[in-house]
Amino acid sequence: MPALDVHSHATGPGRARQSRYVYLVAAMALPAIAIAADAIARRWRYLTLPIVALLLAGVPGNVHALRTYTDQGFFFRNQTRIDILAAPRVPLAKKIVPSLAPAKFAALNMGWLVASLPSGRIPAPDPPLSSTKIASETLKLVVREAKKPTNENCAPLVTTQRRVLRAFQRITISTGSALITYYPQFGGDPSKPVQFPRIIGGRTVVASTGPLRVEIEPVSQPAVLCGPVFTTWTRVPGGDP
Question: Over the stretch 179-234, which tens digit does the pLDDT of each residue have?
């Protein structure tokens, strides 16, 4: 898993705390703070050095926070660009609901991207995507967070299981956590494993299209997997990964 967790800063309270408005309020308060510090220093000169030290104490931390926030913003924008350019090129692109957005905060939808690809208006990702990256982009695009959990056929998830998800089928990890890895239907490298609920966002995910061959591996116990009656699949020795 990448060390930088983009999702924790892309939405929610983390994003709000790092909003431009926080810095705007701080900037507007600086003149008042400076006037107060000047008045105190004029009346009690022996407090000048402690006041200066107090004002400078937060500078290194704020510089570090600003640099980190800038890096996170660049990473998020770059990853969103990759998600959008890769979306119409994944093998399952034409089977995805046209109204689905390829990434968070994206104003485009899959229907427009797929229709525009033949014209050359959608540039190719640079550098080109590896087969592992294509599978990972497919997993991110097709397996989405769902709000409503499913209570079907709940059973302990003790060992890694292989399942086939059909379009609009949901699975829930009611307790514990697990990794999901996507395997392309016609062979090729699998995706990088994705942990849920932490990465995907919730304890329930839904397949926006299918069939999807996935491996579900328990991470923390007790892990309980709920979902429809799954079809299983097996690896072909020497062929399918």
Answer: 999 999 877 899 999 988 766 667 899 999 989 999 999 999 999 999 988 778 77
- Residues 6 or more apart from 167 whose CB is under 8 A from it? 95, 207, 208, 209, 210, 211
DSSP 237: T
Who's near 148: CB < 8 A, 6+ residues apart? 170, 204
CA–CA gap between residue 189 and residue 181 (Å, rounded): 11
* Per-residue pLDDT tens digits for 76-98: 677 788 888 899 999 999 999 89
Q: Which of 10, 17, 180, 13 is nearest to 79 (CA)?
A: 10
CATH of domain 135-226: 2.60.120
State the Cα–Cα distance between residues 182 and 91, nearest whole angstrom: 13
d(CA 190, CA 241): 7
The tokens for 115 are 């229709």
Q: What are phi and psi of 147, to 5 degrees?
A: -80, -35
Alpha-carbon torsion 90, 96, 99, 104, what sign?
A: negative
Sign of the alpha-carbon dihedral angle for 210, 211, 212, 217: positive
* Residue ranges of domains in the chain: 7-83, 87-130, 135-226
Beta-bridge mates of residue 196: 178
Tracing tokens 């494993």 back to the chain, one arrives at: 193
